[in-house]
Every structure is written in C-alpha cells, then in structure tokens.
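Revision sheet: structure tokens.
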Amino acid sequence: MRTLRLTVRRSIAKTFLLGFLGLPFIFVAIDYVWGSFGFLDQLGAWAYAGGEVEAFEARDDILVAMIGLIGLAFVLFALKEFVSPRRLLVADDDGIHVPLRGPLRGPDGISWYQIRELRAEGAHLLILLAARGDLPSDPWNARWDDETTLRLRTTWWDRSPENALGRMKALGFKPLVAPTEPPVPPTTLLDDAEPVDTPQSDLTEIPDHDEVTAGLDDIADSTDGAEVVAGAELHDEDDVLERLLEDLAVDDAGDE
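Predicted:
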C-alpha cells in the first residue's frame, strides 16, 4: 500500500537564479588571475577615463579570492539542489516533519496529535501546537511567536503555504487536537428579553426639591402643625399620639 505524503522542496527556479548570480563572481576571479576575458582591463580604463590604471595590491588579491569563493559556493549549491533538492517540509500520516536544527541536521517530527491548527499568513506557515515538547527553542528558518505558535518561513518553498495547506487537506491530513476557543459567557433571562420602548409622555416628571419643600409647608399649615406626611419634620411621638386621641374623643362626642 502506497503511503500518502506531501513533500515541499526547495524552489528550483530560485536556486537557478542564485547559481546564475555566482557566475560573474567566478569570471572576475578568473580574469584577475589569468587575464582571459579582459574584463578588468576594460573596467579600469572606464574608471580612470583612459588614464594609467594603478597596479593591483595584495589586498586586491584577498578581495578577488573572496569574490571567487562566494561565486563558486553559489554555483555548487545550485548544482547540488538540481541533483537532490532538499526537502523543507514533509507531511504524512504521522505528522509534519521540518528541519528545525540546521541545514545539516535531520528533520524534527511534529505529530498530528500535537497540532491544534495550521494557518497560512503571507510567506509564512503558522503551526499552533498544544505543547512545544522537545522542539528547539531557537529553530532554524523559523521562529516562535509565543510558547506554542511556530512560524515557518516559506521563502524558498517550491509552492505557496496556501497550496501546501490545500494539498494536505486533499490528502486527508488534519490536526487531531481541537482548537481552543474563548469561553462563552452564560446568558440569563434578562439577556434574552427584548427591550421595551417607553413613550416619553408616559414618564412621570419628578418635581425638584423646591417644589417638594413648598408642598410640605402648605400641608403642615393646613393641619395645624400635625406631622402626618412622610419627609416632614416630626414632633415628639408622645405629643402626636396625644393629639390624635383628643381628636378622636371630640369626634365621638359630636356623634353622640
């Protein structure tokens, strides 16, 4: 039975451009040593406007040697990638495998049971983990956004991160840890009730303090000082009780 797998390799087109960039460095170094191309002679004549070109010094030898080595490294790296391009990401039934410890080290495996979510953001692939585990704290070609979010750079990939995620989904690869969601606050009957619009005309106008005070004074004068309204200044409780009993006795005598 064939194992389903997604392999993301280094981009051949970008590698070719890098190797092509190294060729001029090699030509300059060869022309400096053997004078085969006459490039440096033409460059010197142009720089000095036809005057006498100064002789090269020892420091120029060092500079040209560095230029030649850089160009040779670019070309050899491009040839190596043409023959055996490096795998930058592999997704299979076990999880995702990415090299996080350097270009000369093996890949680190991240199980699907450890992954909560995969997300593409521009030229990066975000891997949201349930726990970091034994992954390196300073990953190569990646960085940690926080304790459990790994951001992979996809600049040298041969496909976009969106394409890689779509291919994983088509192959049936998906995280096996449910993503965490913020808790939903409990609702009450008051939250579900619909607001009631009260007409402005039904609202009772509340009198101000001066109107209340004037009304209490009028009531106090009409009752000969008897305090029967809440909020007014009360007399002694015994005097009020005695006055009420006298009024009752007068009313009973009048009825007889």
